[in-house]
Amino acid sequence: MSTLAPRAGRRCHNALNPLHSCVYFSPDLGKEFGELGLDEPGAVYFAARGAALGAVGPGTVTATFYNFNHELVARHLPAVWSVVTPSAALEARLRAADSTLRRVLGEEVLASPEMAEAARLALRAAEGCTRPAKPLYAAHADLPVPEEPHMAYWHAATLLREHRGDAHLAALLSAGLDPVEALVSHTATGKGMAPRWVMATRGWRSDDWDAAVERLRVRGVLDEAGELTDAGTALRAELEEATDRMDAAPYEHLGAEGVERLTELGRGFLFTAAAAGAFPDDLVGRG
To answer: Other C-beta atoms within 10 Å of 249: how many?
Structure first.
């Protein structure tokens, strides 16, 4: 039996993951990759996040990223690897993460004992992650841990993010939600990416979105207004619960007291970063 409070691991992940993710919205990422010869946002994202997998083709990235249109992925891969090597991309991402965290958190937070404590706790949690059937986590787990505490914290957040993400894809497959249906149903909860961001970053068109909405209506997940039905709400809840079960190991490894403290520290950093403009204002929502 679990020693953790219900959803404790999920809450901890939700505190850590956004600080990892803010790098992908940061102008520093575009700057670093622009200096390497990549200036198209899609190419930058696929290179930055996919580099841990090596110089892979579009099939691998479509499979592991799940909710991107394969046509968009194939537009950029494997071509990006003729411009920037995976090792150079990983180094550029680290530089962007460093400069982003310095800007949105400030030097005092980065040098604080709380940051050092958070790094230790997050790395301890990551020791409990497992590689089987978790390709993006496993690829990142092979990377070295940065020495500076704020970068070690960011690295550990990356590991925990990809570990849960890999588990979530298994839950989506089990629930029978294809990539666009997963996006549509998540947006319908009010917590997912707004449709305009889906179109801009995932490569889907409005007719793809509308077709997914119709499939979910037929299935009883959405009603005629595009809102989640009771069955749809239950489906989304079960998805998260299934993901919790497959992602429990790192938080069980850290223990209840450590998870509670890491969540507290992570939320503090996240609130500071959000107040500093780390995220687009219109990223989340139904509109």
So the answer is: 17
